[in-house]
User: What shape does this take?
Amino acid sequence: MNVPSAGNDLDMYQSQLLELRQRLLYAEKENKKRSHELSSALDEIKHVVAKRMNSTTNHTDDTKWKELNLTRKLPVHFTNMYYYLPHLREYEDAIFPNVIFGQQRTGVSLVMGIPTVKREKHHYLINTLHSLLYELSEEQKNDCVIIIFVAEVNAEYVNSVAESVKTSFPREIQSGVLEVISPPASYYPDLSNLKKTFGDSEDRVRWRTKQNLDYSFLMLYAQPKGTFYLQLEDDIIAKPDYIQSIENFAAKQSQEWMILEFSQLGFIGKLFKSEDLPLIVEFFLMFYKDKPIDWLIDHLLWVKVCNPEKDAIHCEKEKAKLRIRAKPSLFQHVGIYSSLAGKIQNLKDKDFGKNVLHKTHNNPPAKVDTSLRTYQQYTLEKVYKGKDCFWASAPVAGDYISFTFLNPLKVEKYFFRSGNMEHPGDKLFNTTVEVLPADEMLRKELVDNGSKFNYPATKDGYLKIGAFENGIAGGSINQSIGKIQAIRLLVNSDSPVWAILSEVFIKTSEN
Assistant: This one.
């Protein structure tokens, strides 16, 4: 009997790896040829969407890509899915997402993908979106799109998530910053008889296999929308300046890269060039049943740059040229309950650093007062002096926060920010900013005759000069009002959430 030698096994192993490498290089070459076809398909999408938008004023609720009649002109990387997921041949629309909310925004610099699934205990999605949108400028919002991929086939659950997002972010849904999509039920193959590997339970193997399919679907949908694709998860918080930091880090790379990492955890904060996504997804689909997504990424890099005839140290150096880590991390994992039932995960990125939960300004001397019930040590005086944030239980109509200056002042500008990175949803809603003129004669005139300025007057002599919008209030003050005795934030309706004031800035001619 002939027993294969270790040398023969090694030769066979190297031969298989080289063959796989050749297949990947061929796929990469083919990918470059597809750009024209993809561009044509995208132009057709834009044309059809524009035509539809001109013919109706209805929102794009329940729009499906299959309605755009593109099934006969699929980009090649879509058709390749049929090789790895042969069951799709029976369902012509299985690779077209259900677009529950979306304006089909394209041509942006950054596309962010967030897959979300039903969890047994706690949901983090809305807080994650609050964190991502927290300090984005209008310019940044106009140059990005965040895709929420509800990776479930239960229509009732999918619609409940979509409505929750729409209720929390109506402006972002309407403008197209946020999109909510879901997969057709026919997209997923039978996951009931998967081979158990690496000591994982049947449930874990099914979970990670579906996760690979979810990432693949989301990436292919996102690919034609922008220049870069950022992979995120639904249970994170982001640094306030994350988009600018990503742009700066990407711009200073002098070598060809495949992945820029802005978190050391799992598949969070991984930036790809959109042009690379078809190749990456094709690799995922080749091995979606075999290994978890982060292992597949590492194997893809191995196939691209590692030489089987050289050692592991050389391989790691070569992979590091394609996979570049940014520090400090821009995203932190906050979820405890995993999407895998029963799994608890207290994963934290040690490179994220300490969260900055308030901002400090040199405000003029004032007496502070509030009708809100303060939570623990988070007092109003601390946020005014820039020492901490102010945190209070849910406001009701008539509640107020006031700053009465020790000496009347000429106030030029004001800025108030509610919510913070860890609790971005704890904002002030339906709250007005009001000023009390120091001139008593002027106050009496306002009470008796109303405002002679372009601001509405209250019955107690205040002028309504602004209001909170998406948790922020700021602006300049008409200098003809004269010196100001006090500034008041007045809550006009009951709030369902607690309130945090994380920044107070009152600019006078003196500071």
Remarks:
- The longest helix spans residues 6-33.
- Confidence is low (pLDDT under 50) at residues 50-74, 337-344.
- The longest strand covers residues 400-409.
- The two ends are 92 Å apart (CA to CA).
